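EI: anyone free to look at a 252-residue chain?
SC: sure, send it
EI:
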Amino acid sequence: MDLDYALREPAPTKPNVTSSKEHMALYEKWERSNRLSLMIMKGSITLAIQGAIPVSESAVSYMKSIEEQFIGTSKSLASTLMIKMMTMKYDGLSGVREHILKMNDMASQLKGMDMEISEGFLSHKQTLTASSTMEAEFIACYEATCHAVWLKNFISGLQLVDSISKPLQIYCDNDAAVRFSNNNKTSGGSKHIHIKYLVVKERVLNQTVFISHIGTTLMLVDLLTKGLTPKLFQEHVARMGLVESLSCLDLK
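SC: here you go
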């Protein structure tokens, strides 16, 4: 018996009194396959999920409805995982390793939905040696801009919102780098900067991102790159949302 015959072949026209025996036999074969396919699919799906799938007399149509249902579910799950990853806080009770494993598990689930997490969520060293502090900070702005554009496109791709009209805010604690990013002029001290990094100016000009100055004591990323005093370390950890409150930390 060709159990999947109704899934492979289109439905033949319904026979009538003038139909040939071959046509009637073909229709009966297709109808039996269609009925059994529907029975098997419905028997393999829980009642809770069946209620969300439109009723159909065709196995092919029913399977398409299931596919559409799971596409919507995947988008909803991806949105939930992204929000959870961005708001998840270390409670100070379980181990840090367990917290990291939970984050890694969510990233793996997103990867399985073809939504791989960008390296923008990682902290790493620059791949070149800068000749000045301004150049180093400007290159960091370039990396942050690339990740901001990826995040903007990713959120738009989830189709949860039509578009993101406001520029994404990027903070930098170097005045010279902020001024250089926010104007379209060049100076003798910046002529050696590779042309690819100047895309930052274009992104600012077309209002994709906006780079603002922030005081060094408020730069949260210093927690990942510098040695800080215990007091400032505690404040940065709390502001990053890694703990519910400073009471979770007990640094001496």
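EI: The mean pLDDT is 76.
SC: 👍
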